[in-house]
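User: Please predict structures.

Assistant: First:
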Amino acid sequence: MPSLRDIKNRIQGVKNTQQITKAMKMVAAARLRKAQQNIQNFNNYFTNLDNILSDISDINLVNENNYLKQRDIHKILFILVTSDRGLCGSFNLNIFRYIECEILPVYKNYFNEANASFICIGRKGFEYIRKNKLIIDKKYLQLFSDLKFDIALKLSEIIRDDYLDFKYDQVNIIYNEFLSTTKSQVKCEQFLPIISLKHLISNVDSSEKFIIEPDKYRLIKSIIPKYLNSKIWKILLDSYASELASRMLSMEMATENTKEIIRILSLEYNKKRQDIITREILEIVSGANALLNN
């Protein structure tokens, strides 16, 4: 049975933990507000860039541009975006479950023949892929500690160069899309070749709507790398905001749990203390009665 000192020390330990979880929640909340603002500011730019590409593209350009042209798929790259640290609830776990339930079964033949590999952004994803003995091409750790647009530029350039060199025939990105403070969604989006534009391409020649100089092909060729850079940056922003939101909610729940543990331990402490007092009183009364009887 634990002594009063043991229970008291445990209560103090839980209170210390409560202070830590409160502080972590406040830090995550402050960073989340900034991350949400960054997403909101950037979404306008990305949406307009996507609309411009869709407006000036036509079906004849699909087979002329290496980023739009479909290939026979022999090798696939997955870019896995996770966190570097834990204590963020189910943020990473949801991605790992998605890989096990959606990615591995669908692309089973590619993995069995070593034609599927990963670029891991975040330590947790890297450790998961390594544990499952899947092929890792590259790893990028601690990117979110100082997240800047230059990071997205470098990543995009590396991926684009490898794709144009036919190292991969298809590139997919697995990440958590930020929807709200309380909700995120695991997504697997095809990064290359670009398919999102092709659903918006009209059979009507864009020259009927716009005057384009020097020509449509060269304009699209210059815009698409910017689009891909922006796509990577948007995904990094979404993932980071989702991680912060998950951490904030997780720490809030942990703080509430510490309150309940402190309440239970306090009841146990008071009950044990009352039992000790009652026992001491009985011993005193018994001793007094014994003296009177003598």
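Second:
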Amino acid sequence: MELYDLIIVGGGPAGAAASVYAARKRLKTLLLAKEFGGQSTVSPDIQNWIGTPTISGTLLAENLKKHVKAYASDILKIREGENLISAKKDKDIIVLKTDGGEYKTKTLLIATGSDRRKITVTGADKFEHKGLTYCASCDGPLFSEMDVAVLGGGNAAFETAAQLFAYCKSVTLINRSNEFRADPITVERVLKNPKMRVAKNAEVLEVKGDKMVSAIVYKDITKNEVIELPVKGIFVEIGQIPNTSFVKDLVSMNKLNQIIIDPRTQKTSVPGIWAAGDCTDVLYHQNNIAAGDAVRALEDIYVTIHTK
């Protein structure tokens, strides 16, 4: 079995950035990418990918793939479409198992990202990307001077609301309980904005519209009253599901199953394994951050390999 200097898992911005840097540093690398692009492939108009004023998620994925493949050679190999099953470490060698085979490496960079937790109420599927979105940083500017809703009560929901103040006419936070999970200082800061509205103890029932979203329907549990709120946009922030199950018995994770890393180096709890992007416990998750974190990891991986 061939032994690699580095295996990178994940084809989003983090995995792509790390692959380019690994190839340029002449590390014998294998990229395992189930697909290219990450979560943003579903966005029709991304306006915060630095260096590109506007780009669709589909084109971003194509560009990432094209950039990585420009370096494909005997140094960088790419395998697409394989599902990760497990990873284990035997002394100084890490063995990855997929549904396509087994691979051995001296070092590993996990850049598998996460999937957004989705709402499943009536109309949610129908209006996804038609007013219902899971990415405020990607789609927020599309709702300039419109009334919108944010679903959730954690830090991500409040941070999303804060982003939307720059564009939207009003922002209504819909929270299913009476308490917020976000940090008190964040809650206090966001609630002070005159554009902010809050609906607590609210159970979302339906997303309504014609061609695009026109309203969200929720039940005020306290009053036992059904309310239809006119909005043009709905931003869902009810949590993420990190794609980390294949290393659940290998590296340390937090209660959300995000991989715990050293933010200076991206190292995990296991020597020889680094992680970057949305699968980690960093505070903010965005494409540009993921790519930068992966470059930081790659720099540290290179130094580690060449100082052994």
